[in-house]
Amino acid sequence: MKTWRSASLAATAAALLVLTTACGQEDKGGGSTDGGQPVGAAKPARPDGGYGDYGSGGGTERGTAAKPAGRLAVRDIPELGKVLTDSAGFTLYRFDRDTASPPRSRCEGDCAKAWPVVAAEGATAPSGAGPGLLGSVARADGGSQLTVAGWPVYRYAEDTRAGEAKGQGVGGTWFAAAPDGGKAGGAGATPTGGPGGYGTGGAPSRDSGSGSGSDRAEPVGLPGLSTRKDPKLGEIVVDREGMTVYRFLKDSAWPMRTACTGECLEKWPVVAPVNKNDTKGILKKGFVTFARPDGIKQQTIDCWPLYTFAGDRGPGETNGQGVGGTWFAVTPQGKAVGTAK
């Protein structure tokens, strides 16, 4: 009896170890490329439900405190046209995942290191601007950030000289600000918010993409991860902003590895860790945090790493479905929609 009990306990312990290792928690090699080699450095985390969209400047300390802009100016930059700058000539940017009505910033923590926020205090409008162009928004850290036509504005840590605009188009979500608060270079959306002296603007087009889904409204009070019924894909997982969650078929759950690194993360930001109690309708088996070898922590379902897509501009969009034949929306059980995996 004693021998049988010892053997049974040993077998149970071994099974648990296999499960843990298979889910990647004991796999010190972490993620891999297609060739099975450890991944290299990747982009830093963002706090609004995923990681990425930052560019390569996330590790700097330049943006740890908001800096004043002084009197704003308008500058002509080749290929972009007229761009709004601070008094020192540095390009100002806006983030598609922010909102202008009401003003709201979703760039905090490491994001604000790559994209230093512009302090509202002491900022004055450029010559010729209307009185309502500039405003401010209170940040979660207690600071006050400058807004242009309602949009929070930032600098980019990789711009080291006046007149540079290296942040244009980063992650498909960051764009230089036009003088009226819209996107410079004909990149699309025009702003909402207070009137400016550079045009009337219009409604924001954050949710105007071509992906499927009809619920374009800004979600309120969603859990960290939940589900929604997509008219084409069925029940799929969404993050706390209602953005579609995806899986990459080149990843692995057994053992847990990632093939999306570096520039890949600019298009496919990882889903940040979510408390298991902050979910609704999601499979809890294998609901663990993946400690990637690049230092990013990523949420999984059934041990599969989860991502969002920078090409989805608003809730209800599924522009990432089927991209490259390797990216697919996720079912509540962690399956890739439309595949057998």
From TrEMBL:
The keyword Magnesium does not apply. Residues 26-70, 182-229 are annotated as: Disordered. Residues 49-61, 182-202 have a biased composition (Gly residues). This is Lipoprotein. Keywords: Signal. GO terms for biological process: alkane catabolic process. The keyword Oxidoreductase does not apply. Pfam families: Lipoprotein_15. It comes from the Bacteria. It comes from Streptomyces qinzhouensis. Residues 1-24 form the signal peptide.
